[in-house]
């Protein structure tokens, strides 16, 4: 179990670094959006590339921060029911949720997303907008983001199983301490 918990810590560390890095993309998106608006309204200059860059940055934040959100227990769940359960029952619910829902969904999206990206790469797909950007980088975010989410799900699963086996602290309490 200690080997698996070591893997879990490694996955957590990777997603923690990516989450910190991705948070800066929000600032970059705001700056790009502001500069684009200033140029458009002050100088009547506009570019589809700048608008698409904003979309790409938003997509990067959304796709790459999912694993970070799961790590910090900020994902969506029905808290009104979940919070009434004992910690062990919460771990059981999380375990089944990860095995029955998160894992299969991630694997399907990774598989389909890779094909979606690969075709865009193969044809060097470009935006249909004049002056638009290439499309494959933003399409690559789909399998990459879901791979990170899948790995974080594995990490969470390891921690839940260790908690159920009385080999680790409750991972939900840990995240409450982090804040």
From TrEMBL:
<feature type="transmembrane region" description="Helical">
    <location>
        <begin position="91"/>
        <end position="114"/>
    </location>
</feature>
<dbReference type="InterPro" id="IPR007387">
    <property type="entry name" value="TRAP_DctQ"/>
</dbReference>
<keyword id="KW-0997">Cell inner membrane</keyword>
<keyword id="KW-1133">Transmembrane helix</keyword>
<dbReference type="GO" id="GO:0022857">
    <property type="term" value="F:transmembrane transporter activity"/>
</dbReference>
<comment type="subunit">
    <text>The complex comprises the extracytoplasmic solute receptor protein and the two transmembrane proteins.</text>
</comment>
<dbReference type="InterPro" id="IPR055348">
    <property type="entry name" value="DctQ"/>
</dbReference>
<keyword id="KW-0812">Transmembrane</keyword>
<keyword id="KW-0762">Sugar transport</keyword>
<protein>
    <recommendedName>
        <fullName>TRAP transporter small permease protein</fullName>
    </recommendedName>
</protein>
<comment type="similarity">
    <text>Belongs to the TRAP transporter small permease family.</text>
</comment>
<dbReference type="GO" id="GO:0005886">
    <property type="term" value="C:plasma membrane"/>
</dbReference>
<feature type="transmembrane region" description="Helical">
    <location>
        <begin position="21"/>
        <end position="41"/>
    </location>
</feature>
<feature type="domain" description="Tripartite ATP-independent periplasmic transporters DctQ component">
    <location>
        <begin position="30"/>
        <end position="161"/>
    </location>
</feature>
<keyword id="KW-1003">Cell membrane</keyword>
<keyword id="KW-0472">Membrane</keyword>
<feature type="transmembrane region" description="Helical">
    <location>
        <begin position="134"/>
        <end position="151"/>
    </location>
</feature>
<dbReference type="Pfam" id="PF04290">
    <property type="entry name" value="DctQ"/>
</dbReference>
<keyword id="KW-0813">Transport</keyword>
<comment type="function">
    <text>Part of the tripartite ATP-independent periplasmic (TRAP) transport system.</text>
</comment>
<feature type="transmembrane region" description="Helical">
    <location>
        <begin position="53"/>
        <end position="70"/>
    </location>
</feature>
